[in-house]
Amino acid sequence: MASKPDDLPMLALIETPNIPTPTVDDQARVVLLDGEAFDAFYARMKAETDKHVPDVTTDKGRKAVIALARRVTTTKTAIAAAAKGLTEAWRQQTATVNAARKPIEEKLAELAAEVRRPVTEWENAEAARIKRNYDVVDDMRQAATVTLDDTAASVEERGRRIHGITFGESWTADEEAEAVAVKAATVQALVAARNRLRQEEADKAELARLRQEAEERAAREAEAQAAREAEEAARRAEEERLATIERENERRRQAEAAEAERLEREREQAAERARIAAEQAAEAAQRKRDEEHARQLAAERAERERVERENQEVQKRLLDDELRRKQEVADAEAERERIAAEDAKRAANRAHVSKVMGAAKEAIMTCNVTEDQAKAIVTAIKAGLVPAVTIQF
After folding, report:
1. What is the Cα–Cα distance from 391 to 379, expressed in whole angstroms?
2. In angstroms, rounded to a whole number, what is the distance separating the alpha carbons of residues 142 and 139?
3. Structure confidence by residue, pLDDT tens digits, 85-107
4. Crossing angle for the helix pair 173-365 and 152-163, nearest 10 degrees?
5. pTM above 0.70, yes or no
6. Fewer Cβ atoms within 10 A, N terminus or C terminus of the chain?
7. Residue 4's pLDDT is what?
8. Is the dihedral of CA 71, 76, 79, 85 positive or negative?
9. Residues of the chain with pLDDT under 70
């Protein structure tokens, strides 16, 4: 079925100087791969749509607006289809490259691992030894923490365990010195905590005894107060009974007077209702005439408002499409700027940290320390493994 002119995309507005007889796909690829070409195409297409003067007061005018919008949508669909074709071709090329790259990377990675294996095995063993030793140090540090669930007995037991820890040949002199210091500090902290908890437990026992005595006194006083309150309640009940009898007598006198007044009001109200009924009948007839006139006016106003809403909806859709495109362009530019700023910030931070640690290493080497030892010291300080010493970045 041949397409009507109103259904054809507006790709003929795209300039294709190197393609004498461009197809729809050729034209779409031009604006997909060249931002300036798209801007020029969009400007020409916008000029075409701006020339159209919408008339929504007639069926023909409304159909013309819809047909113009359909041509813009058809253009968008044609460009999207071309983009899909380009993406599929690139995807197939990428798959071919990836299939060849993977076995090459795997073989080279295996060879690199095989060459480095002796050092890797030594590094793994050294890392495991250091971790085991520092796990012991961390355990001793954590043991110094006294929680709300601890008692004097649990703290004392933990102190005995820490005191019994020894260090063997797998410890370097520096590691053993640090571990001995942590052990001494932990044992000292646990002894102090045990003494404090013993005093707190004795204080709690004394407080519980005093609280029990206070509760027993309060119970005796509450019994005496309950007896006094019961006597007072009996007296008030008798007074209330006598007052109730008096109130009942007064209520009967007031009811008789109220009944007489009610009968008189009913006679007056009957006459008033008759007068009001006549007035309401006349008002109802007038309201009926006014309501009929109001319905006619409302129907005319509703028709005017419906036509106006349709006009506004067409204008709003055109404006929304333009605003959405501008927002998408702004969002993409903002995202590119954000990613670039984050990359620059991370690179500057890595350079700064490397510079500070290098300066610290050079300073430590002036104390008759080798470069490897200086590196190890700076790394330990940065990791927080040297008490009371930090690096300021």
Report:
1. 10
2. 5
3. 878 877 887 777 777 667 766 76
4. 70
5. no
6. N
7. 47
8. negative
9. 1-8, 100-101, 104-105, 107-108, 111
